[in-house]
Amino acid sequence: MSLSKQERPEDRLSALNFLGGHLKIAVSKPRPQFRFNFSKRKMDFGLNVKQFFTSRIGKPKEEKIVEEFFVEEEEEEKFQWLELPDNLREIIVHQMPLQSRINLAATSKGEREFVKQMKVECKLFAIEDLGRRTTNLLRYPDLHWKVFARSGKRFFLNFMCDWQHDIAVCFCEERRPFYGVCPSTKVYWLTPAGNIKKTIIPNINAYDLAVVTARHFFSMITEDCKRASVALSGWPEEIFEIPELQKSYVIGSSYDDVESIHKTYDFFEPYSFDVYMHKTAMKYIWPFSLLSVARYGLRDWMVMRRNDRILCDAMLDKDLRILILHDSFVSVDKMNQFIDKWSNGGVSDKFCWWAISTHCHVEVEEVIDQLPITYVGEKYGPKYTVPKESKSKKQKPIPLVRMVKYKVQSLVNRETIGTLYIRDKMVLFANAGQCPKIDEFGLITYTSRSGVNETQF
Amino acid sequence: MSVENAPVVDVDEAAIPVEKKMYYRFESNDKKEFRVSELAIQQSETLNRLVEAMGYTSEDVENKPAIAIENIDGKTLKLVFQWCEHHKGEAIPVDDGSVPKIVEIPEFDAKLMDIDNGLLFKLIWAADYLNIVQLLNVSCKKVANMAQGKTPAQLRRVYLLPSDEEDEAAKRAAQEAQDPRAREVEEEFEERKRQGGNSFF
């Protein structure tokens, strides 16, 4: 008897299948094994020997099987689900974590349609190229270990966190330069139980699949998705066209070029904007800059560097509320100018704060040059470094860095006092009464419309 | 100062005006009577409105017959009133139509709902009928918890859900029962097909 589609759980269990509705997922079939299975032959040989010595070598194998077979199944209590009216079933489904909803949707067509109507409250949505940002993947160590340890592949991560569980899906595209583009995509899916499942979807590349899935995710979450993070190369229009994404409160991004950052900011005008510019900075940091020079030519590289610096400085000319820039090119002069402008009443009242770290050394004296400031105090804390995974090498002692705090006096209103922190390569300036909490380790804890957030400098 | 060392003050209890608590009497459909405090009734929007509309005094409550609740049996009603008495005076969550927030089942409620699924089913119905928002939330949460960690096959068994094939078969049977002529046509069509006829008409 052939198994019907419903009786193959792997067909139904996939979150993608559920989310996509019509998206067909082909389950990877085991490859034909041509080599000899020596282990099996050994086992056969052992069994053959046993046949002659059954009286001496323990019980025959059949008896054991019979014992295992007659393990009594626990009786499950039945609940008359279908007897409940729709409004009560709706309440129950809303109380279910996402994984249970997916499983319920997989039981029958009717339930699938019923569950699909109900939206999920989403705290955070992310679509990220793992070559650009991996901080969110670190939330799932098992998945990180599984997919990130492999080189020569391109990964995209989609995940969403509902109010009880996370669903993380990772799309992997194998790069085979001599065989052209790989037509299929491996999908690693982390279930809330912590298991990693893998499926292969043919005839679609990882990026397209990540975009398709992002759309499906957004179609099933409530409109007020609290936070979103987009980290892709360039300015992917197909992602930014998703209307629900525009309602997100925090847009965290990571881009190759500064122009895309400007474009994204102008498009969303977010309340808070958190950008990692490490990829951009790499182009100008020795010795990686050599690669960029070789790629673009020295003249073009210098023009590009100059433009990027100007564009970075221009970020502070925008109508800001909360801005967080990691590894940026914003010059110390520009920061000084902004604070001076604020003290002269030239900055909008909406402004809350910005925290900017640069890839160059920051001189405290240059930042506070000719500003109406008062020294408040200083603290020392360890410099933030990414811990190394290899334990064989001796870890260098972490150097201490100074964090100094100043009060900045407004020249327009004597009662308005801003706050300025300078720590290592990071400068934080906050409007009166808007300063976030920062500790000596460089961890900034702040409250935005989406709730309490943290960022590390 | 510890509680033991605190000075004891004699209070003339008769001097304090004590508001007399009113207990309403309700009757289930299997003629079981329950006495429920006025404060506990406030948890149920339906009963609260009913009692307000009736305008009973404390004498009426004793003299007039118990208020009959036709749709709920005694066993379920006992659970409902136990819950209401335990949670009396608590704030009632406002249903603003948004997605329900995280619901946690308190210890008392967990013990109360340690019942078979048949009774739990009736309890949900009763909570919905009597419009007791928080009881409905916790009982629904209990049912939602049943699904946790279960595969679709297990869910089908627990929630008594038919598979797609069973569903289709049931639909077909229902259609046939409605229209016996359709079955005849279908049989005729099958027979002609077997005979090798290309066109039916």
UniProtKB/TrEMBL annotation, chain A:
Any single Pfam family the record assigns to this protein: F-box
Domain F-box: 81-120
PANTHER family: F-BOX DOMAIN-CONTAINING PROTEIN-RELATED, F-BOX DOMAIN-CONTAINING PROTEIN-RELATED-RELATED
Name by which UniProt lists this protein: F-box domain-containing protein
Organism listed in the record: Caenorhabditis brenneri
From TrEMBL, chain B:
Keywords: Ubl conjugation pathway
Pathway: Protein modification; protein ubiquitination
Keyword Coiled coil tagged: no
Biased composition (Basic and acidic residues): 169-194
Residue span of region Disordered: 166-201
Pfam families: Skp1 (PF01466), Skp1_POZ (PF03931)
Gene Ontology BP term (one): protein ubiquitination
Protein family according to the UniProt entry: Belongs to the SKP1 family.
Job of this protein: Probable essential component of SCF (SKP1-CUL1-F-box protein) E3 ubiquitin-protein ligase complexes, which mediate the ubiquitination and subsequent proteasomal degradation of target proteins. Regulates cell proliferation during embryonic and larval development.
Protein name: Skp1-related protein
Native species: Caenorhabditis brenneri (Nematode worm)
